[in-house]
User: Fold these one by one.
Assistant:
Number 1:
Amino acid sequence: MLNKVLVAYGTTNGSTARIAETIAEVLCKEAMMAEAVPARSVTSVESYDAVMVGGGLYAGRWHRDARRFVRRHGRALAERPLRFFSSGALVASASERNIPPVPGVKRAMLRLGVEEHVTFGGCL
Ligand SMILES: Cc1cc2nc3c(=O)[nH]c(=O)nc-3n(C[C@H](O)[C@H](O)[C@H](O)COP(=O)(O)O)c2cc1C
């Protein structure tokens, strides 16, 4: 069983933070120790067994904090189970169909061997 899960997020207006906190709450109900932490505050991922990274979408790119996080911790992230999510589409389409990752996120997924990504509807 995975013990400790980090849900790191990059947000400007708070909706990605709320999604990350909800994910962490759900994981805690599944008997994991999960915590949602702003990506810019994370100094090391070594103490976590698995990591989820999420970012709000701005002008077709992941939030800067999420991008920097995966660059800074790339090696350690690649050694752990890793999942990505984005928050952005303002229309109902995010809940009706799977919206693929934006190109920069897709590249990071290929680089780090991430197979799963979800886009959640965001809000303004
Ligand atoms: C200036 C601006 C640019 C945005 N660009 C995109 C975009 O390219 N793609 C998208 O799906 N959503 C876009 N959005 C919507 C945001 O991603 C959405 O509001 C998201 O929930 C913001 O996340 P945050 O609240 O965590 O900062 C944009 C919003 C703003 C204000």
Number 2:
Amino acid sequence: MSLKSSITGNTKVLCVIGHPIAHSMSPIMHNAVIQDLKLDFVYVAFDILPEHLEKAVEGFKALGIKGINVTIPHKIAIMKLLDEIDPLAEKIGAINTIKNENNHLIGKNTDALGAKVALLNAGFDIMEKNVLIIGAGGAARAIAFSLSKECKKIVILNRTEQKAFSLARDLKKIATIPIEGKKLNEQHLKQYLFHSDLLINTTSVGMAPNTNTILIPKEWLSSHLFVFDVIYNPLETKLIKDAKEIGCKTLGGLDMLVNQGALAFEWWTGEKPNKILMKNKIIEFLNLKQC
Ligand SMILES: NC(=O)c1ccc[n+]([C@@H]2O[C@H](COP(=O)([O-])OP(=O)(O)OC[C@H]3O[C@@H](n4cnc5c(N)ncnc54)[C@H](OP(=O)(O)O)[C@@H]3O)[C@@H](O)[C@H]2O)c1
């Protein structure tokens, strides 16, 4: 596949790092908008093992890489290797985007605003709503912090109870709303699903290739819920399919992915990318893969 027809000695490099990384959709959506805007950039992916992270960060400076997206498992570990961290990302405790300004590396978290914008664009008004978040990893942290100023209450349920407590404790430092962190189990799920307006799955359960796995049986859902699953591969998870069948309003992870990517792209290049093009390129790619 030809990504850019005229890479020259002036072409600036953007990239995503993670391990594994071959599944990443970021090169697809970013190269599409680079071409669309006729910018002299190229976006590539690097598979970086955790033990090579420090050298990779030195490499960003040595090679003059202009912008970097960061994904699993480096979102937390990389923070201490950067020169500056945006205050919101500091509170969240994870970054997903780095800008290289004259060899000064600044880390930000665009997942947080990306998720919030996706919810607003989907017609969900978070003001005064009860939110139930399943999971307490990087995505949960970003989303919980982004919603914690406007919603009425946040409950976090996680398989590893300690991580739910720890996220709730960190959120309480900045939020004035009630926050609870508890063990993910049948009793808590049934109890909090009943009292929630918005259910957000931030775990990787249901992600390809294990697309038939769910944490919440369909019978426990009810039509008053808005269901947001941050997984974007598959485009429609089993949770989202079940929720639609029950009559819930739903949102998949693709819009969050595109929004976080668009925020990063604008920060790096100063140009607003076409988000519809970014989204369509990913849909096209994932649909082709399924054929
Ligand atoms: N749409 C987007 O833009 C976007 C952005 C970021 C992430 N994501 C997606 O979000 C998902 C999570 O990413 P992350 O960065 O938050 O990963 P992470 O930090 O590794 O967290 C993973 C979370 O999933 C939970 N989990 C994993 N397997 C589980 C299981 N079998 N049963 C119950 N809980 C389980 C973990 O629970 P424990 O703490 O008990 O291990 C943890 O809470 C991934 O699918 C990722 O692709 C999407």
